[in-house]
Amino acid sequence: MVNLSDWINQTYLDKGVVEEMRAVFAKNRQLLLPDFLCKDSYKHAMRLARSAAFKRAYVPDQMSCAFAMRQDAFLRFLASERFASYVQLITGTKSGKRAFYTELRARDYTVIKDLPQTWKLLTHLFLSPWNAHWGGRMIFRDAEGNHTHSPPAQNTLLLTGNRKGLHGYVEYVNHHAGKRTTITANV
Amino acid sequence: MINPRYLQTTVLARLRKRYAANKPFPHAQLKDFFDVKQLRKVKHALLNERFVEAEADLFSFQQCDDLKHSKNRTLREFRSFLRSPRFLSLLSYITGENLSATIDISGFIYDDTDHLLPHDDKLEGRKLAFVLNLSTMTAKDGGQLDLFKGNNVAKSYLPAFNSLVVFTVKPGTTMHQVREVLTDEKRITLAGWIHGNERSRVHENRRSE
Fold first, then answer.
1. What domains are defined for chain B?
2. For position A166, which CATH number holds?
3. What is the predicted ipTM?
4. Which of A59, B22, B172, B208 has its CA 20 to 30 A from that of A70?
């Protein structure tokens, strides 16, 4: 049986804090939670993510990045009913049943494809230490042309609810990243 | 305005043949194309235009307004020259394309980390894409114009001052990118598109019926 407290920072399990998060999400349709995993769990998740079997995906006019789909303990937690219900408490929508890792390095990116966006909620858990100057931000653009920018900050959860005309992409990772990579767990 | 070498019949005939045969799609790099003294004036005038940061999923660079809005005489005259029957007929001969005097042209400055991701330039009316390089970059500076065949870079051009690269726009085929600039060297260009004329579009439509 999955315990939320095995993974999630106690602060984010507090009833009052959950209420606050719910209010913020209801207003902004987006929520950013730093230090989301408790310390030891974060280290464990990071170890698992780093040992995942990544496969490169390169379609020049769509994306350059790597994916790892094989389920480990952390991905199973993110795909669990318990976690989905927790997310539903905050956002009103359950997170999905499929979790996977993405890894970005220098020269990686995704671009917007003008296709219908059928998802209801996106969950991104940024794992790796990262500097926003290296690029790789998760950027959403709405129908009015407004943008939100979320740098892949270490151990930070990003919840994004869909709305009409919303499109997201991952900003190009520039050469200042050197040999570093940023890994994100996605649901 | 044009380097006299490009007015010689034999040179033009060779360029025309090469353009059509070039891989991965019809294109040409025309080195030392314009009169250097005049082009330096154009560059100087361009750098006095107002450039703004432009960022989106596909790109990051600085761009000035289309030259048709410029108040600078040198730039307006240069644009007029590019729209002139003399220049357009030369380009038409080399490329085999029927071109109109409708031209979109802006200045671009790519700085450290700036880039333009792979795309094929498709938009109604665009017939020829062009890039006029106003700076020179080395391999360590980055900023190459890469032409794709499928998922691979098939041809790469380092920016060289006064080189003009042109290619025929074909959706789904003419995929290209500007590689990330890696140093403090600035990649400065005038770039844009020349549109086809109605007659060439009607002719193409009839051929496909």
1. 4-208 (2.60.120.620)
2. 2.60.120.620
3. 0.93
4. A59
Residue for token digits 């998740």? A45
Residues A150-167 pLDDT 10s: 999 999 999 999 988 899
Half-sphere exposure of B61 (CA within 13 A, CB side): 24
Residue contact A61–B120, C-beta within 8 A: yes
Q: How many domains does chain A have?
A: 1
CB nearest A61 (choices: B119, B142, B182): B119
For residue A96, give its domain range. Answer: 4-186
Q: Do A135 and B182 touch (CB under 8 A)?
A: no
Q: Over 70: is that where the pLDDT of B208 sits? A: no
Q: Which residues of B touch A171 (CB under 8 A)?
A: 57
With 0-12 / 13-18 / 19 or more C-beta atoms within 10 angstroms meaning exposed / middle / buried, residue B158 is: middle
A19-52 pLDDT, tens digit per residue, is 999 999 999 999 999 999 999 999 999 999 999 9
Q: Residue B23 is encoded by which pair of tokens?
A: 């891989």
Confidence of residue B200 (pLDDT cuts 50, 70, 90): very low
What is the rounded end-to-end Cα distance, in angstroms, of chain B? 42
Q: Is residue B56 over pLDDT 70?
A: yes
The string of DSSP letters for B65-117 reads: PPGGG---HHHHHHHHHHTSHHHHHHHHHHH---EEEEEEEEEEEE-TT-EEE
